Amino acid sequence: MADSEHQPDRLMSPALLATLLLGGLLLLGAFWLRAGWIGTERFAIHWLDVEGELGRTSSSQIRAAAAPLAANGFFAVDLGRVRQEIEALPWVVEAEVSRHWPDTLHIRVSEHRPVARWNDEWLLSRQGEAFAVTGAEGMQGLPRLSGPDNRREEVLANWLAMRDSLFGSGLEIERLTLDQRGAWTLGLDNGVELLLGRQRVDERMLRFLAVHEQINQETRRAVRVDMRYTNGLAVRWANGSDGSREQTMGDSDRHG
Question: Does the pLDDT of residue 240 top 90, yes or no?
Answer without folding.
Answer: no
